[in-house]
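F.,

This is the one I mentioned.
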């Protein structure tokens, strides 16, 4: 008997996610904006509220109830492209896109309770891409689209240093000790290449060029690792997680993992330094183990959005999508606290993913009585089979996918009494 459409949809949207969270979002809110530019989500360190940027506003919502607590607006009315919260949680620093009327870009400082305090106007057309604030809350670093780098004194709101001769700026991240910056620039020095460089924060001197560029670069809490998205030219629009150890001034490539089609613009290390979480634009997010450099878990929710954030206590995850809807999920347990060697996601692997002509499914060779079924996005079963004894002894089997059109598919793998659900992509 074929599985019902409802059963397949349930497996597609809920089975994987239910390992750590409730099946449905805790709440969903439509942002009260015109909807022309949206920014990142950011949990307040107290864990009680979450901030989200959209157009010229930052909205603050109650994490538990979804109640809109406060609305903040830029004094310049320019659209927000990035914002950061100071470590003492007293101030919000906002960086804008170019104001259409004046052609100017602005840095604004707000008191988190009372609002606007002061601002700085940047060079004409030099719009903000990313901000980073030092741990002592005295210095702001700004990467712009020009590209250009700024170091700004937050007490005087004056530019201490500007660098645009060497072509760095754009996407930036600041190390926890405040001594180095990672900068990723598209069309580096006017060419076709994307480059990531490590610079010192005192003189913006270039220290190293990474072997591969990293979009959405970020440091872990110790500053020893840098993570981000990278891509390969052999599979267009396919991205990978790049992870580098920068201790002893040597970049040790820890691994470039299997593909993620349509990478997002957010990536985070968990506070315990064990995992990296990465969004996918068209689906949910992936969790990767740093030590083994393997994917542990994928949430397939099709919210079609890039930005996400995880609360400091790792119990909530928040995301904004392209339709300016804000989603909040609550985990049953702190994120990944239950990860161990017995999880199905560690014992069942699919590769390559995305693929073109074949898909290999790997499992422990001790397993027996294995079968699978494949479904398209409409819930229609398109293929099923039992695995032969010879394939079982090898520990893997291969499925021919040449007849399948480009898109996402669901494979349900039965191992004895257990059923595991995975999804894969065909990209041609």
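My design for it:
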């Amino acid at each position: 008997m074929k599985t019902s459409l409802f059963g397949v949809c349930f497996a597609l949207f809920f089975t994987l996610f239910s390992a750590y969270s409730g099946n449905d979002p805790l709440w969903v809110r439509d942002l009260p904006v015109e909807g022309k530019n949206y920014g990142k989500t950011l949990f307040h360190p107290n864990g009680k509220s979450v901030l989200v940027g959209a157009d010229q506003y930052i909205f603050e919502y109650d994490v538990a109830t979804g109640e809109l607590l406060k609305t903040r607006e830029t004094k310049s009315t320019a659209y927000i492209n990035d914002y950061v919260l100071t470590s003492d949680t007293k101030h919000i620093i906002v960086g804008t896109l170019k104001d259409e009327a004046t052609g100017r870009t602005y840095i604004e400082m707000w008191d988190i309770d009372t609002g606007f305090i002061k601002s700085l106007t940047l060079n004409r057309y030099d719009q903000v891409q990313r901000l980073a604030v030092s741990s002592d809350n005295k210095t702001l670093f700004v990467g712009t689209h020009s590209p250009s780098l700024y170091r700004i004194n937050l007490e005087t709101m004056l530019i201490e240093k500007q660098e645009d001769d060497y072509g760095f700026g754009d996407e930036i991240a600041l190390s926890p000790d405040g001594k180095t910056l990672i900068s990723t620039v598209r069309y580096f020095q006017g060419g076709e290449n994307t480059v990531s460089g490590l610079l010192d924060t005192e003189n913006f001197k270039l220290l190293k060029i990474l072997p591969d560029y990293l979009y959405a670069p970020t440091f872990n809490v110790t500053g020893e690792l840098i993570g981000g998205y990278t891509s390969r030219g052999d599979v267009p629009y396919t991205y990978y997680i790049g992870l580098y150890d920068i201790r002893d001034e040597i970049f040790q490539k820890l691994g470039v993992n299997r593909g993620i089609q349509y990478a997002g613009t957010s990536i985070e290390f968990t506070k315990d330094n064990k995992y990296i979480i990465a969004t996918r634009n068209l689906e949910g997010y992936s969790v990767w183990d740093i030590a083994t450099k393997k994917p542990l878990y994928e949430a397939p929710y099709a919210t079609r959005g890039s930005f996400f954030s995880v609360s400091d206590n790792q119990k909530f995850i928040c995301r904004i999508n392209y339709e300016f809807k804000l989603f909040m999920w609550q985990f049953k347990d702190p994120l990944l606290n239950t990860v161990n060697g017995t999880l199905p996601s560690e014992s069942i692997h699919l590769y390559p993913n995305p693929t073109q002509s074949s898909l290999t499914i790997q499992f422990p060779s001790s397993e027996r009585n294995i079968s699978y079924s494949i479904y398209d996005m409409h819930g229609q079963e398109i293929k099923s089979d039992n695995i032969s004894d010879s394939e079982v002894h090898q520990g893997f089997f291969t499925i021919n996918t040449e007849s399948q059109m480009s898109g996402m598919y669901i494979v349900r793998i039965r191992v004895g009494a257990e059923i595991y659900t995975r999804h894969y992509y065909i990209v041609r």
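Confidence is low (pLDDT under 50) at residues 1-23, 250-262, 333-346.

Talk soon.
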